[in-house]
Design a protein that fits this description.
The protein is α/β, with parallel strands linked by helices. It has one domain: 3-Layer(aba) Sandwich (Rossmann fold). It has eight helices and seven strands; from the N terminus they run E-H-E-H-E-H-E-H-E-H-H-E-H-H-E. Helix 4 links the parallel strand 4 and strand 5. Helix 1 packs across helix 8, helix 3 runs parallel beside helix 4 and helix 4 packs parallel to helix 6. The longest helix is centred in the middle third of the chain and has 29 residues.
């Protein structure tokens, strides 16, 4: 059976680049997004020249919507062999200003969303004794970031989930890994001024921001058979920032 990848957050810079990279590797793609369906449908029309795609509107924090997306992928492609959890939100706030609603929403999308998608993906993978789950965390999940406590906590939790789940499903020949990107040149940086971006860039030893295509190449490797003996790992891609 031809491999199928389901990508959440497919309208974002990393998610869309991952879709292109996996399509180039022959994967059929289920593109999932919540807020920018127009962009994802435009991406799907381009990818359809090289592979089959399906678009699903999904709030990953909603269990029913996640289940529906996987059911669609199963109907269209027979099942999902690779899950890429890119969906996420961020917010900068002083810790004392973070509201309970801010905290709950951050955890609901960034952590519960990964939980929901992993649980939806695993029955098919376990049945087939093969599968790949690639979770996108952040370098701030490794080191923590000032004024992003709830974001850092959610991304650190994704790392813990990855390591524990990888050990649990390893006997079923399923690899679960996590990548921890640094500052990547995407629209998520729109909240920073040009001056802020320049200051951040000066802190990166490689002297530049990462490109979505570079993160996508790592995702494509982890989705390939070449990574079959790599699991429970957190792989940084941050230009030596941390």
């Amino acid at each position: 059976m031809k491999k199928t990848a389901l990508i959440t957050g497919a309208s974002g810079g990393i998610g869309s680049a991952a879709a292109v990279a996996l399509a180039d590797e022959g994967f059929r793609i289920a593109l999932c997004c919540n807020s920018n369906e127009k962009a994802v449908r435009s991406l799907a029309s381009k990818l359809n020249r090289v592979t089959d795609t399906v678009v699903c509107k999904v709030d990953v924090s909603d269990r029913d919507e996640v289940s529906a997306a996987f059911e669609t992928a199963a109907e269209e492609f027979g099942g999902v062999s690779v899950l890429v959890n890119c969906a996420g939100i961020s917010q900068q706030k002083l810790f004392t200003d973070i509201t309970e609603e801010d905290f709950d929403r951050m955890m609901s999308v960034n952590l519960k969303g990964v939980f929901n998608c992993c649980q939806a993906a695993l029955p098919f993978m376990i049945k087939n004794k093969r599968g790949k789950i690639i979770n996108v965390s952040s370098m701030w999940g490794v080191s923590g970031a000032s004024c992003e406590v709830h974001y850092s906590a959610s991304k650190a939790a994704v790392i813990g989930l990855t390591k524990a789940l990888a050990r649990e499903v390893a006997p079923s020949n399923i690899q679960v890994n996590c990548i921890a990107p640094g500052v990547i040149d995407t629209k998520m940086n729109a909240c920073f001024s040009d001056e802020d971006l320049k200051a951040i860039k000066e802190e990166i030893p490689l002297g530049r921001f990462g490109r979505p295509e570079e993160v996508a190449a790592l995702i494509a490797f982890l989705a390939s058979e070449s990574s079959d003996y790599i699991t429970a790992q957190v792989i940084g891609i941050d230009g030596a920032f941390i």
